[in-house]
Specification:
The protein is mainly beta. It is built from six helices and 22 strands. The protein binds heme C (HEC).
Length: 431
């Protein structure tokens, strides 16, 4: 007998089964697995940061309801750029149709379907995503991550060993145990004997003051030789430079790693590495990590929507290739906005739901040219009220500082600039 619903023949009820796309019921193999491969398995596989693997039906089935709610609430996959501003090459957000597919599949009892419909499994690169590096540097000392508890950010400084200036066409950080790594940042800085006295090479330290960032009145930074090389997040991609672009590491530079570990139940030792591919030809453009920030602000106790902002004037033409908002636990939203010399203004990136736990970099699909004279603003809001579940202390006034109970307004950017710019200056004071 044909199944009926409400006295109507099956045919009339089909849309219920067919979900978003019509007739046949959505199945794991045909409809769901391709989405999970593309958008989820980068993190949800053994050894990666996702708490459970989502590689096959048996693993996925118990999570159907949780997947449904995670994608409806846009908690997963982690991606925070508001749609409508900018196009990013590492955008992993789900389309409306993909969300609808996962929802109707879960609502229909998460059927398995026919294994013959399964997509080819993806083979994940376990080696270097940038290809074979020309040079790999390993931190000199391993770090012992406990089974549980909170590990404060660890910093470690070590020499690059470069005896000549080097152009780098690709750089990648790799942990041994991605599942305990929340994020890592590699930066390059000129060797500074004073700083090294305080923080000897090869010894982990918890940051308590960087002589380079003590001037509270600074609002932008482009120290000539000190910059971020990469922000690593699990499941992220190594930033690809376009042909003709390269980063410069000066002879004698030191490398600094900032490491944020999240214990996962088993003690492990970790010794992250960084790999470099050197440019084979002289570059046409230099890519640099710079930042626009404000270190001179007070967020009042209890303020649910404190505004902190800063602006700079661009002293030369530049192309923006990547953007990364950075705030701490009270961060709510962040925007990069450019106002061009002709007065028109444009939002380059807006993150309306900032989440400190995900330090994402947004790679622009097409580099954005900002002409000299453009005013670039970073605008952030902070929730210092008791309603913010992440707030370490709503009763305190908050200032700039490195620690996560202090705050930051920092817009990291990768920019591509001319090799021989008319002026060395990148940022100047804005009116
Ligand atoms: C960049 C890495 C990453 C990607 C990509 C990712 N996840 Fe996750 N996922 C995590 C991490 C880490 C957690 C645990 C912490 C959290 O919830 O933020 C998590 C948690 C979850 C949870 C909640 C588990 C629980 O304990 O309740 C679900 C469900 C989930 N992910 C589903 C997905 C789905 C579906 C996708 C793809 C559409 C996806 N995730 C993509 C990293 C990722």
């Amino acid at each position: 007998m044909l199944p009926k619903c409400g006295g109507i023949l099956l045919a009339a009820c089909l849309p219920l089964y067919g979900g978003a796309t019509g007739s046949a019921p959505l199945t794991y193999y045909k409809d769901v697995a391709p989405i999970l491969q593309q958008r989820c398995q980068g993190c949800h596989r053994p050894g990666e940061i996702g708490p459970m693997p989502l590689l096959n039906y048996k693993q996925v089935r118990p999570w159907a309801k949780a997947i449904r709610s995670a994608v409806v609430l846009k908690k997963m996959p982690p991606w925070f750029a508001d749609p409508g501003y900018g196009t990013f090459s590492n955008d992993r957000s789900l389309s409306r149709a993909e969300i609808d597919t996962l929802v109707s599949w879960a609502d229909n009892g998460a059927p398995e379907g026919n294994p013959k419909d399964a997509p080819q499994p993806v083979s994940f690169v376990d080696g270097w995503a940038i290809g074979k590096p020309d040079l790999v540097l390993e931190v000199p000392t391993e770090y012992h991550i406990p089974a549980s508890g909170v590990v404060p950010y660890q910093y470690i400084l070590f020499p690059s060993g470069f005896t000549e200036d080097k152009w780098i066409e690709a750089v990648e950080m790799r942990p041994e145990n991605p599942s305990v790594v929340h994020h890592m940042i590699a930066s390059v800085r000129p060797h500074n004997p004073e700083y090294e006295k305080k923080h000897p090479h090869g010894q982990y330290f918890e940051r308590e003051g960087d002589p380079d960032s003590r001037d509270r009145s600074r609002t932008f930074g482009a120290a000539p030789d000190s910059e971020n090389l990469q922000v690593y997040v699990p499941g992220g991609v190594a930033p690809a430079l376009k042909p003709g672009q390269a980063r410069l590491i000066k002879a004698g530079s030191d490398i600094m790693f900032q490491l944020h570990f999240t214990p996962n139940g088993t003690p492990v030792t970790e010794r992250p590495r960084i790999g470099f591919r050197f440019a084979k030809q002289p570059p046409i453009e230099r890519v640099r990590g710079v930042s626009v920030f404000n270190e001179n602000f007070t967020i009042l106790p209890g303020d649910p929507n404190a505004l902190v902002q800063t602006k700079v004037r661009l002293m030369q033409d530049l192309k923006v290739t990547a953007l990364q908002p950075h705030m701490h636990l009270r961060g709510k939203d962040f925007e990069f906005r450019a106002t061009y010399p002709d007065g028109k203004s444009e939002t380059l990136l807006r993150v309306s739901h900032y989440d400190f736990h995900w330090q994402l970099t947004y790679f622009l699909a097409q580099p954005k040219l900002l002409p000299a004279g453009t005013i670039l603003e970073c605008i952030g809001h902070y929730d210092n009220s008791a309603n913010n579940p992440n707030n370490p202390d709503p009763s305190s006034a908050v200032h700039h500082g490195d620690q996560s109970w202090e705050e930051m307004l920092k817009g990291f950017m990768d920019i591509a600039i001319d090799l021989n710019p008319k002026t060395k200056e990148i940022f100047g004071t804005a009116p």
